[in-house]
C-alpha cells in the first residue's frame, strides 16, 4: 500500500537520477552497490574502501532498470557552487543524505536547502549493524536491540523536528539488505517513488575555511630511550639527598624524605580531555583506558545516540586524581563551533585528545589550531579501526589485506589534516573494544607518559591499567626507582614483623601494577575469553610472597650478630636484591599473561 505522501516520478524525464551525498566513510559506495544488488567485486560496482575518493563524474546504472541512475557525491563542504545548484534545481530527482553517526550542521543545512528548492530528500542512517554490534560489546548484560533502534530513530527525528524539518529517516545496513529499513527504501527507489518533505526557515550560518596557520607539535620522545640510571647511580644520588635531609632535620628528615618520594605521585593531579565530533567514541575510550565496560559502575555513558550532553569528569577507579573529561562533540546542532570554547574551560587540562571515527574534518582542524594557540599538548586519534578492517573484509573477501587497510586509513588521515591547513602530525589508530589488537592504543599511553612532567610521570604510569608489554616495561623502570627507598626503610626498621608487612605491601603493589591481582585478572579474562584454570595458573606463578619473605627473614636472622649500623646496611642491601628479583619475576609473568590474553582475543571473532 502506497504511503499517503508518495507521488510518481515526473513522466517527462528519461532518467530518474538519485544523488547520494555524505561525508567520506558513511558508506555511499556500499549503499549504491547494495541497492543495485551488486557485490564490490562485480562488474559495474562502485569502488568501496576506507579512503576518501573524488566524486564520480558518471552515473551508476541499475542493472535491472537502465533508467534509474545513482550519483555518488562528496559532502557539501567539498562541493563547488555549480554542483550545489545542480543538486537543488537542475539535475537530480531525489537526494539521499547518508550519515554513519550523528546528524551534522552540514547534513541539516543541505536537507533544508533541498526541501526549499522543492526537491525530495531522505536521511539515511547507515551502518546500523555497527551500532548494534557495538552496543552488544558495550553492554553485554543489558543489550536491547529493539530499544536501541527505536532510540536512534527518535534522535534523528527529534533533531530534524526541532528545526521544523519533517524528513523520512531510514536505518539501514548495506550488507544486510533484507533487514531494518533497507527493503522499504529499496522498494521506493526502484518504484521511483518519493515522499514529499516539508521545508523550513532554518539557516545555517556560513562559515569560512579555517586559516592556514601551521600547527606544529613537538615529537613525542620514546619513553624507554636515553641512558638508564644504574643501581649504583641511584644509591649515590639517594645518599646525597639523605645526607642533606639528615643535616636539616636528623633521622626525622630522612624518614620524611623517603616517605615523600614513595608517595608523592599519589597527590599529583592529571586532567585529560577527550573531544571530537559526536559519535567518535569518546566515552568508549574513557572506559577503555580505565579498563571498564559500559556496564561497570562509574563507566561513561556509551550509546549510538548522543549521550554526552555536558562536560563531565570520570575518575580512574584506582586513582581519583587521574581524571578524564568527556566533552560534547563539536559541530552538531546542539554544540556549535562558535560557542564551544565559551562553554568549556580548556585551561585546566594537561592533554587534549581529538577523536574522529572516519575523516578528520574542519572542526577537528579548528580544534587543533585552538589548542595550539592555547599551548596545549594534543593528539589526533582515529577510532573504530576494527570496524573499518571488518567492513573492508566484507567488501573485498578475496583481496582483503588488513595491513594495507590500516596503512591507507593512516595516509588518508594525514591527507585530510594537510588539506585543512595542518602539517604532518602523528595519528593514532585504535579500537576501544580491542585495545591489545591495535598497537597504537599502547603507543598513545606511552606518549602521555613521555609528554608529561616528571611529577606526573609516576602518577600516569602507576595509574594506567592496561598491562601491555611496552607499558609494563615502563612500569618496571619506575618501580625499580622505588626499591632503594624501600630498602632504606627496611634497614631502619630491622624488626621482623615490620619487615614482613612492608615487604608484603610492596609486592602486592607490584602485582596490582601489572594487573596480576585476582580482581584485575578475572576482569581481563572475561574480556579475552581466558579460562578460569589459566587465571589460577597465572596467579600461582605470580604468588612468590611467602617464599621471598621467608628468604629475607632467614637472612635477617643471620645478620643479627652484626653491630646495628652494619646490620642496617646489610638488611637494606639484601631487601633490595630480593625486591629486584621479585620485580623481575612478576614482570615476566605479566608479559606472558598479556601474550596469552592477546592470543585468545585474536582467536575470538566479535
What does the model show?
It is built from 22 helices and 14 strands. The chain has 606 residues and is α/β, with parallel strands linked by helices. It folds into three domains: 6-195, Rossmann fold, CATH 3.40.50; 268-463, Rossmann fold (3-Layer(aba) Sandwich); 478-603. A six-stranded mixed beta sheet has the order 3-4-2-5-6-7, sandwiched between helices. The model is unreliable at 1-12 and 198-227 (pLDDT under 50).
Average pLDDT figure: 76
Q: Helical segment tally?
A: 22
Low-confidence stretches: 1-12, 198-227
- Any idea what the CATH architecture of the largest domain is? 3-Layer(aba) Sandwich
Query: How would a crystallographer describe the biggest sheet?
Result: 6 strands, mixed
Task: Identify the CATH class of the largest domain.
Answer: Alpha Beta
What is the terminal-to-terminal distance? 39 Å
Q: Give the helix proportion (percent range).
A: 40-55%
What is the β-strand count? 14
> Per DSSP, what share of the residues sits in E-state strands of 2 or more residues?
5-15%
C-alpha-based Rg, rounded: 29 Å
The total tally of domains equals: 3
Amino acid at each position: 500500500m502506497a504511503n499517503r505522501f508518495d507521488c510518481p516520478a515526473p513522466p517527462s524525464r528519461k532518467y530518474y537520477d538519485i544523488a547520494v551525498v555524505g561525508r567520506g566513510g558513511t558508506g555511499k559506495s556500499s549503499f549504491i552497490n547494495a541497492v543495485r544488488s551488486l557485490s564490490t567485486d562485480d562488474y559495474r560496482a562502485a569502488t568501496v574502501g576506507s579512503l576518501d575518493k573524488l566524486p564520480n563524474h558518471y552515473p551508476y546504472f541499475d542493472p535491472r532498470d537502465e533508467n534509474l541512475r545513482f550519483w555518488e557525491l562528496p559532502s557539501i563542504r567539498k562541493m563547488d557552487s555549480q554542483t550545489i545548484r545542480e543538486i537543488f534545481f537542475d539535475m537530480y530527482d531525489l537526494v539521499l543524505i547518508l550519515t554513519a553517526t550523528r546528524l551534522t550542521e552540514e547534513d541539516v543545512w543541505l536537507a533544508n536547502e533541498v526541501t526549499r528548492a522543492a526537491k525530495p530528500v531522505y536521511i539515511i542512517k547507515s551502518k546500523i549493524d555497527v551500532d548494534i554490534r557495538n552496543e552488544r560489546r558495550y553492554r553485554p548484560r543489558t543489550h536491547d536491540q529493539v530499544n536501541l533502534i527505536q532510540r536512534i530513530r527518535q534522535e534523528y527525528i527529534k533533531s530534524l523536528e526541532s528545526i521544523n524539518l519533517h524528513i523520512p529517516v531510514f536505518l539501514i545496513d548495506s550488507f544486510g539488505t533484507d533487514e531494518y529499513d533497507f527493503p522499504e527504501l529499496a522498494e521506493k527507489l526502484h518504484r521511483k517513488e518519493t515522499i514529499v518533505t516539508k521545508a523550513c526557515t532554518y539557516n545555517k550560518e556560513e562559515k569560512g575555511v579555517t586559516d592556514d596557520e601551521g600547527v606544529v607539535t613537538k615529537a613525542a620522545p620514546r619513553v624507554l630511550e636515553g641512558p638508564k640510571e644504574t643501581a649504583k647511580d641511584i644509591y649515590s644520588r639517594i645518599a646525597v639527598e639523605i645526607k642533606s635531609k639528615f643535616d636539616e632535620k636528623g633521622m626525622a628528615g630522612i624518614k620524611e624524605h623517603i616517605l615523600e618520594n614513595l608517595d608523592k605521585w599519589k597527590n599529583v593531579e592529571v586532567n585529560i580531555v577527550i573531544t571530537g565530533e559526536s559519535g567518535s567514541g569518546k566515552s568508549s575510550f574513557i572506559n577503555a583506558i580505565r579498563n571498564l565496560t559500559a556496564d561497570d559502575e562509574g563507566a561513561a555513558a556509551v550509546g549510538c545516540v548522543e549521550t554526552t550532553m555536558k562536560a563531565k569528569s570520570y575518575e580512574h577507579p584506582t586513582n581519583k586524581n587521574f581524571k578524564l573529561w568527556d566533552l560534547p562533540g563539536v559541530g552538531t546542532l546542539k554544540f556549535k563551533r562558535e560557542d564551544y570554547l565559551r562553554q568549556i574551560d580548556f585551561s585546566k587540562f594537561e592533554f587534549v585528545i581529538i577523536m574522529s571515527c572516519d575523516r578528520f574534518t574542519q572542526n577537528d582542524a579548528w580544534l587543533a589550531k585552538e589548542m595550539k594557540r592555547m599551548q596545549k599538548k594534543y593528539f589526533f586519534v582515529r577510532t573504530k579501526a576494527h570496524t573499518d578492517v571488518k567492513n573492508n573484509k566484507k567488501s573485498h573477501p578475496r583481496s582483503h589485506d588488513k595491513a594495507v587497510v590500516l596503512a591507507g586509513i593512516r595516509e588518508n588521515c594525514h591527507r585530510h589534516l594537510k588539506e585543512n591547513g595542518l602539517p604532518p602530525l602523528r595519528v593514532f589508530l585504535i579500537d576501544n573494544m580491542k585495545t591489545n589488537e591495535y598497537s597504537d592504543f599502547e603507543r598513545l599511553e606511552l606518549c602521555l607518559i613521555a609528554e608529561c612532567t616528571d611529577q606526573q610521570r609516576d602518577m600516569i604510569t602507576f595509574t594506567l591499567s592496561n598491562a601491555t608489554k611496552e607499558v609494563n616495561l615502563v612500569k618496571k623502570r619506575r618501580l625499580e626507582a622505588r626499591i632503594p627507598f624501600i630498602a632504606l626503610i627496611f634497614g631502619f626498621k630491622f624488626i621482623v614483623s615490620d619487615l614482613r608487612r612492608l615487604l608484603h605491601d610492596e609486592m602486592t603493589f607490584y602485582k596490582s601494577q601489572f594487573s596480576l591481582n585476582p580482581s584485575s585478572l578475572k576482569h581481563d579474562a572475561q574480556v579475552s575469553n581466558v579460562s578460569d584454570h589459566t587465571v589460577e595458573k597465572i596467579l600461582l606463578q605470580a604468588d612468590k610472597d611467602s617464599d621471598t619473605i621467608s628468604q629475607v627473614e632467614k637472612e635477617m636472622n643471620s645478620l643479627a650478630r652484626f653491630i646495628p649500623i652494619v646490620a642496617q646496611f646489610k638488611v637494606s642491601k639484601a631487601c633490595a636484591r630480593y625486591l629486584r628479583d621479585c620485580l623481575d619475576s612478576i614482570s615476566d609473568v605479566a608479559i606472558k599473561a598479556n601474550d596469552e590474553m592477546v592470543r585468545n582475543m585474536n582467536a575470538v571473532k566479535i
